[in-house]
Automatic annotation (TrEMBL):
<keyword id="KW-0472">Membrane</keyword>
<comment type="pathway">
    <text>Porphyrin-containing compound metabolism; protoheme biosynthesis; protoheme from protoporphyrin-IX: step 1/1.</text>
</comment>
<dbReference type="InterPro" id="IPR033644">
    <property type="entry name" value="Ferrochelatase_C"/>
</dbReference>
<keyword id="KW-0456">Lyase</keyword>
<dbReference type="Pfam" id="PF00762">
    <property type="entry name" value="Ferrochelatase"/>
</dbReference>
<keyword id="KW-0627">Porphyrin biosynthesis</keyword>
<keyword id="KW-0809">Transit peptide</keyword>
<dbReference type="GO" id="GO:0005743">
    <property type="term" value="C:mitochondrial inner membrane"/>
</dbReference>
<dbReference type="InterPro" id="IPR001015">
    <property type="entry name" value="Ferrochelatase"/>
</dbReference>
<comment type="similarity">
    <text>Belongs to the ferrochelatase family.</text>
</comment>
<dbReference type="InterPro" id="IPR033659">
    <property type="entry name" value="Ferrochelatase_N"/>
</dbReference>
<dbReference type="GO" id="GO:0004325">
    <property type="term" value="F:ferrochelatase activity"/>
</dbReference>
<protein>
    <recommendedName>
        <fullName>Ferrochelatase</fullName>
        <ecNumber>4.98.1.1</ecNumber>
    </recommendedName>
</protein>
<dbReference type="GO" id="GO:0006783">
    <property type="term" value="P:heme biosynthetic process"/>
</dbReference>
<keyword id="KW-0496">Mitochondrion</keyword>
<keyword id="KW-0350">Heme biosynthesis</keyword>
<keyword id="KW-0999">Mitochondrion inner membrane</keyword>
Amino acid sequence: MALSRPLARLARCPQNLAALQAPVHQRRHFASPPVTQNATGSKGPTAMVLLNMGGPSTTDEVGDFLSRLFADGDLIPLGRLQGYLGPLISRRRTPKIQKQYAAIGGGSPIRRWSEYQAAEMCKLLDKMSPETAPHKPYVAFRYAAPLTEDTYAQMLEDGFGQGRGGRAVAFTQYPQYSCSTTGSSLNELWKWRNRLEGKRGSGEVDPQGAIKWSVIDRWPVHPGLVEAFAQNIEARLAEYPPERRDSAVLLFSAHSLPMSVVNRGDPYPAEVSATVYAVMQRMGMRNPYRLVWQSQVGPSAWLGAQTADAVHEFIKKGQKDLVLVPIAFTSDHIETLYELDQEIIGETGLDSVKRVESLNGSPVFIQALADLAKSHLESGISCSPQMSLRCPGCTSERCLEQKKFFAAQQAQL
Ligand code: FES
């Protein structure tokens, strides 16, 4: 039987293969330089793993990206027909989506931005939290390279886990928690943790020697995040003449959710609303605003009002100064660069309809990431109390086991 990709990657080096084939108690020494886990007076090194959905870096990667995306029942619940409908929809959509990526320069910038944010955050953390240094940056995407399994395998190659212990933080880059996004990424991380380090730490690897995980699972109203959004909004508002500046309507736009997910009790709509309200408070409630939702796919009911409809209706009513604010993603991606910029704003033909820059390389934002990470490491908690609560309508065994696993990591920290 062919090895799965991460296992194949670990096995590429003969010494690694020997390590994989060795009895558990002998699986201690991989060929890559070991990470020192027990330096006197140090809790480091610490792996900082930024989780996100990811995007295809080239148009050739679009097909694989879409097939993973539509196979994920946590993100797009298609029920028992997932295995049939998922590949069908992704195959049908691939040529259209490839054209969209071609129109934004041939691929998504999300990997570049995520790797930059992770590296810059770790540089700050090394200074701010020397006791948990060095902080090693990783990115784990759900649907595009670097995939969760490849990042996990890389961490093992770098000397974390596999009998050597070590500390890792799964840091969601979705500030507002949804079971479709952060939940899905954590389900995937838990799955690969079991496959690569033994089932719930009680199988192939002694729990003491497995990677000790904690999770930053949500941060919708972190002051640094709020400040970074507010500064970018103020910069865009400054482009309007002073007499029109305070009456421009702010349209906060977040990725929508199917109503089946909302009605299951997903926390995302409430947490996105919390971010919007915190940003508006920071800005002195000067401008009128609405929260609207974008990127609906397929014929089922999704959370609205839809961003495109809202822009259209406001303009029809005579409100032409509109500022779109992407509020639920931390870097540019197809939904900002194509859907908002080219489709929605482009089609208005109006210079008075603008979009706020995404957080991308904002130093305020990267400082916020480092502040969050430092507080998390100091807190000694494995995940927030909120993460252990399942949605009232959740029937997923995967959710249940994943939440149990991350909560139980508390005993290891
Ligand atoms: Fe929300 Fe399972 S769907 S916890």
